[in-house]
Amino acid sequence: MVVPSRQLAQQQIQRYTAAQGQEAEAVADHGRQVQARWFACLPDAEAAIAEYEGQGPGHRGRRARLWRYHAVRYRSVADTRRTRRARRGRPAKMDPPPLASGYRLVGEGEALTNPEADNGWTVLATTVSAEGGADGEILEAYQDQNTTVASGFRWIKHPAAIAPVWLEKPARIAA
After folding, report:
1. DSSP sequence for 37-102
2. From 146's CA, which of 24, 30, 34, 162 has a CA 20 to 30 Å away?
3. Is 30 exposed, middle or buried (0-12, 13-18, 19+ CB in 10 A)?
4. Other C-beta atoms lying within 10 Å of the C-beta of residue 112
5. pLDDT of residue 64
6. What integer is the mean pLDDT of 42-71?
7. Which residues are within 8 A (CB) of 64 and not within 5 positions of it... i.e. 6 or more apart?
8. Beta bridge pairs of residue 70
9. Whole-prediction pTM
10. Residue 141, φ and ψ in degrees, nearest 5
């Protein structure tokens, strides 16, 4: 059974915008880190793009994590940068500064929109048949249980109610 709810929709919109704001800061930091990397050849830059887009192996054997609330697109840009001189001493006035050509990446993030139709749906799996009542009535009966049944068993969920179990005998441990 799936029922729309306006109150849940408002909560989900607030959560979505807050999470999107937090991720925007992370995307901006990521963009600065991406732009700081330097590659000597184009295949290395393309491999880094594939890794950033989730096609690579990820970090420390984990799957690459894609962005949830943003679409980030990467492109490689040919660039030059100054390098250290090969020789010691003061350079001649006519010597050009030593340059190295290579590639750097540029990452551009774009915020994804949250469709209004996706917000506010409550999914409830039940064994009650359609003859038992309308969807709204079944959902209301389920939510009414929260005030009567769940509050009675609240003490079970408290950490102090769960006592540690110490098993010292091997026969009890095996049981």
Report:
1. -EESSHHHHHHHHHHHTT-S--STTSPPPPPSSEEEEEEEEEEEEE---SS-SPPPTTPPPPEEEE
2. 162
3. middle
4. 14
5. 63
6. 78
7. 51, 52, 53, 54, 55, 56, 57, 58
8. 111
9. 0.56
10. -65, -40
CA distance 53 to 145: 45
Sheet holding 70-82, edge to edge: 38-39, 99-111, 70-82
Residue 31 has pLDDT above 80, yes or no: yes
In the block, which residue shows the tokens 């990521």? 30
- Does residue 117 sit in helix, strand or coil? helix
Token pair in block for residue 149 = 């049944």
113 vs 92: CA distance, rounded Å: 57
Amino acid occupying residue 65: R
Q: What is the pLDDT of residue 42?
A: 92
Measured in degrees and rounded to the nearest 5, phi and psi for residue 21 equal: -65, -40
Total domains in the fold of the chain: 1
Which residue is it, tokens 């090969």? 86
> pLDDT per residue over 130-151, tens digit each?
777 777 787 777 777 766 666 6
Q: CA nearest 167: which of 155, 175, 159? A: 175
Domain limits at 130? 1-175
pLDDT digits (tens, 9 = 90+) for 91-135: 888 888 888 899 999 988 898 887 777 776 667 777 877 777 777
